[in-house]
Amino acid sequence: MSRLRIILVDDHTLFRKGLAELLESEGAVNVVAITGNPAEVAALLDAHQPDVLILDLNIGGIDGIQVMQQLRGNGFNPPVLILTVSEAEEDMARALRNGAKGYLLKSMEPDEVVDAIIRAARGETVVAPGMTAKLVRMLDNKGSSSASLLESLTQREREILSHLAKGESNKAIARQLDISYDTVKLHVRHILAKLNLSSRVAAAVFAVEHKLGPGAEKS
């Protein structure tokens, strides 16, 4: 199996070079480019077509999430993992709601980062182990202002949303529900439209907010 192609963006030279070497040593990824300059990212994406983009939350005073939004506005849409020192709940929420595939901490072990990269490349939602409890608490405190949106979903859409909450791919959902891949894609498109969401990650966060998960389709 070929190694996943990664671009790493961080403004700390020693950190990004050291992390690149550590990730390469794990054997599953190939760091095809590193930079500390957000202005270079679009050209690097165009040149290397990576499987995953790892992006610092704050790059020399520039907001990494804004960088991600600008890239998407210009037609670049690789899976993005935010890698940061910030353990603030609001930073994690903002990253996920703006379409990041995951939120990782720089205190994580290299093998944990590699595992997150592999999962993100498969379309899964990934959060640093140390942030999971904060994510759940944050969502529990959010309230039920969007409960009416959930009621707009059909039973099948709710069922598929519960699988999105587990980070499953369309292919995996299709296999488990014994329906076609294209049918799952259509349902996911309808779910995002009805919930006014922009990504599968946002849908997964919404599902956790409303306590949809394994077995929800049986309720």
Model description:
This protein is of the alpha/beta class. The protein folds into 2 domains: about 5-135, Rossmann fold (3-Layer(aba) Sandwich), CATH 3.40.50.2300; about 140-215, Arc Repressor Mutant, subunit A (Orthogonal Bundle), CATH 1.10.10.10. The protein has helices at about 15-25, 40-50, 65-75, 90-95, 110-120, 130-140, 145-150, 155-165, 170-175, 180-195, 200-210; strands at about 5-10, 30-35, 50-55, 60, 60-65, 80-85, 100-105, 125. The strands form 2 sheets. The protein has a 6-stranded parallel beta sheet with strand order 2-1-3-6-7-8, sandwiched between helices. Helix 8 (about 155-165) crosses helix 11 (about 200-210) and helix 9 (about 170-175) packs across helix 10. The N and C termini lie far apart (about 40 Å). The model is unreliable at about 215-219 (pLDDT under 50).
List its salient traits.
alpha/beta; 6-stranded parallel sheet; 50% helix; globular; disordered C terminus
Helix content: 40-55%
Q: Low-confidence spans: pLDDT under 50, at least 5 residues?
A: 214-219
The counted number of beta strands is 8
User: How do the strands of the widest beta sheet line up side by side?
Assistant: 2-1-3-6-7-8
The CATH superfamily of the largest domain is Response regulator
Given helix and strand content, the structural type is: alpha/beta
**In CATH, what is the class of the largest domain?**
Alpha Beta
